[in-house]
Give the backbone structure.
Amino acid sequence: MPLSSLSDAQIYTSTEKRDVKKVPFVELLENRLQGIVSSGSDIERVYVSYFEAGSLNYCCSTNNNRPCGGLRGSPCGHLGALLDEAIIQFGFETVGRFLHIDMTQTDSAQAILTRAGHNTGIFAGEIFSRFLSDLELLELPNSHIPLSAMTWFNG
Amino acid sequence: MLENLTIEPNGVRAIRTTIADLDACFLYGFVGGRYEILDALPSLFESTPLHRRIQDSVQMLTQNTFVEAHFVTLAAARSALQGTLYDLLRHHALAALGRVSSAVNAPSITPIRTDPLLDSTREWLMELAIAGFARLESEAVTSFYSTLAQLRTNPATVSHAAMLTGFLHELLNALPVKSADEVPLLRWVDLWSRAMLDAVGLADSPTTIPVSGSLYPLGAELHQHSRFASLIVYAILKQADTIQWVRQTWSSFKATAIQGNEIWLLFPQAQPLLEHLIQGKSMTLCDMPMLPNGDLLWDTQAVESGKKFKPLDIALEYCGVGQALSATPLPPLERHPVQLAEPIALTDYTIQGNQLHLKEGAILALDVRRSGLTQEELIGTTAILGLLQYDEGQWSIQALLTNNAAGKFEYAGRAGMELLKKPPKTSTVSILQERASRLLRK
């Protein structure tokens, strides 16, 4: 059992730059790799997309709960972008392990996509509210007082 | 002198064992659990102010009477043990460094206000402890979301919110726990205890003292989790008759996509001080507010640009072994070995593997878990300023400042500081800030 007070997790930093314009939010939560993908044509529209760990079943819909037109029997471009950006943010290893993928057989985002399951048809609007909560963090005021409790988060 | 550092002071082993025994209760939780350590706990605290309270709480806990006050008692007992370790180890380190601890007349902190959000926090923490970290279910963790969101919006609870946000998401990411061996038990009970004590109530912040003199910035580091970052700048403050090691902290919540060097862009207020750090220029302070244990509370009105200086010369002059630097201990409630960070400047060493070998024989491990200069960056250097730290029963040095082969100085975090100096037109921070103002104002 680890006997350190500090975090083991090395914070992953990619050499590749995250495209936050395209994918402003991505997370690995409970059983899903999920996030928000911007529409290529309409600045007001975003897509809510996810893959389930294990089955690699997926879904993509607009934030107004309309199905994504790009889903025709395989993951759409939004899902592809979501996966690419997840790999940049968390690292290929972490994403692969999270999705329960046999890493000896799979070495790229493309290879993961070819193993995708089917469209669940279940829209996940709650991902959009999680995205808004993530953005809200940026609106909170900064502080300039000492916070010794942050010493545990060695980064 | 420094070679004495690795000799373990009396009592350290015993206290660490007691902490490990106590932490074992938190692995499978308190329901139906019979733990010998709970029976032994009161006698360990005999003739201390906590004795009676521990006696009562242990009795209730072993009868499965779960009231949050008894869990606060456990947090207090554990914090007292970690605080004692801090005192023992700090005393030992200061002796090895040839320094004397400066006395602080910090008044004891009394929580003066309760807050319903803090009441919910203690309830939540109690539920985690009852369940046990190896048996946690995600509903037990996520039930705290809404309280946490409210804690974040109140400036008085920013410290609580920063820590609890990191703790909650760390727990969530670790679920489901596949094997008890994977639980970072010491760490999680550390976080749990600190959070529990902090949630007892809100105290007034201690009175500040105005300080004036020359400030020599010498290093910086980040503390961070996915949703929050703190930037800490370290400096020597030279007042008329004292030389003191001081800190300035800036903190910000962040969206999860903001990572790496872009985190520095969250701290534009820090830019003037960091600019001086990079350039090796001092600052002149006039009545800058400072907390009793050496934390400045930055006020742009209280500072002017000063003269050029040689960072490593200043570091060696004041932070070298045997130099009478004044370094103040943390307030009692915050004392814990993880908080040990005594400044130390060294020459006459070689880097061998992940260790720093001193000419006189002492060996210090290079810290690998925190954001200091790496082994590669230190090879071929001749002087170093770092923080002496303690974890897993071992001392290590987190290097903040060194000189490169050309004789120029090099800082941990330089790339981030340079990014902040010339912020790009678009960055993850600016894109998401723009997005936030568009989406959240609807």
Summary: The CA atoms of residues 49 and 79 of chain A lie 6 Å apart.
